[in-house]
Amino acid sequence: MNRIYLDNAATTPVSQPVLDKMIPYFREHYGNASSVYATGRDARRAIDAARRQAAEAINAQPAEIYFTGGGSESDNWAIKGAAFARRDKGNHIITTQVEHHAVLHTCEWLEKQGFSVTYLPVDEYGRVTAEQVEAAITDQTILITIMAANNEIGTLMPIGQIAQVAKKHKVLFHTDAVQALGAVPVDVEAWGIDLLSLSAHKFHGPKGVGLLYIRKGTRIDNLVHGGAQERGRRAGTENLPAIVGMGEAIALAAQSQPDNAKRLSAMRDRLIAGLLEEIPHIRLNGHPTERLPGNVNVSIRYIEGEAMLLRLDMAGIAASSGSACTSGSLDPSHVLLAIGLPHEIAHGSLRFSLSDESVDADVDEVLKVLPGIVKTLRDMSPIYPGKEG
């Protein structure tokens, strides 16, 4: 059976060029970048090169790039580091109800440390406005953290507008751009942000490595203490092969982004149109146009998302019913609840996420297989009214 992978929002396969770039750094160029001898200097040059690649991809300066263990660490560092560094100026943080749990749980932890957090509601599409953010700012607000693109429903936030509000009120602005890189243009100067998180495995890089962009002059406390790595701001011996891989992956993702976005948007729209036409009692989740090129999230009434996933898996199709980080939970998606879906409809959600390795035949197969799965499950459901349309 040929398997179709449509869960790229959870993770992506390491691309062959990235893997080829990484392999020599496991055996041939394995040095510790903190060492002064030649093997160590080779490692340092490789990390510096990856830092330049990352900086160029997001229009930053190399000195503003700090490698981490992944997106969750970057989110934790940005939020905790900024909060404690600016505690003398206030204790209020603004975020939204639809953030990744790496942001939400960090904010909840900070509340236990005496900080105050405003969790802004979103509209039916999962968006907040700059006006909402501005209305929430007080004289105690020290940080705004709002994701660039939602990992579940694909909705894009008005990051540039929110950044203008933050700058106007002299409040630090962090964005989790983990889902955005490679899908939409990511430009820290055009956006006007202070802090930005990325994770390599979302754009065909290795797992276990990410970065935090820290705008020059931004005061932020360290999260990981120990040695003097990452210019004294993030301790721990650098994961050399992974950093090299991230550098290559981010360069390739930024280079191919315009063409991939155009192609994936067409595939996404065809999949959405086909599902809405072929399956009754279905709704699209997320903004209809301001969404990631490769994201399709739908709720199908009267059946459970997990049942659909299992049958899709039996048919050789990998998808998701929400965020991979919460797939073990029986609770419905906090994102779908935040956009106003009742529990019973939120439980019937599916997410298909495409990547630059996806092809038109993948969409064809979903449109061929899923309507039959839905019909079979609904025929078994005691609550399905059996009415078409």
Description:
The chain is α/β, with parallel strands linked by helices and 389 residues long. It has helices spanning 16-22, 24-27, 38-58, 71-85, 101-112, 130-136, 159-168, 188-191, 229-232, 240-278, 305-314, 334-338, 343-346, 360-380; strands at residues 4-5, 65-68, 92-96, 116-120, 141-145, 172-176, 195-199, 210-214, 282-284, 295-300, 317-318, 349-353. α11 (305-314) packs across α14 (360-380). It starts with a strand and ends in a 9-residue tail after the last helix.
Task: Summarize it.
Strands 2-8-7-6-5-3-4 form a 7-stranded mixed sheet, sandwiched between helices. The protein has a 3-stranded antiparallel sheet with strand order 9-10-12.
Largest sheet: 7 strands, mixed
Low-confidence stretches: none
- What would you call the structural class? alpha/beta
* Outline type: globular
Figure out the total of helices.
14
C-alpha end-to-end distance:
33 Å
Secondary-structure element order, N to C = EHHHEHEHEHEHEHEEHHEEHEHHEH
Rg over CA atoms, rounded to whole Å, is 22 Å
| Strand coverage percent | 5-15%
Strand order of the largest sheet: 2-8-7-6-5-3-4
What is the tally of beta strands? 12
Arithmetic mean of pLDDT: 95
Level of helix content?
A: 40-55%
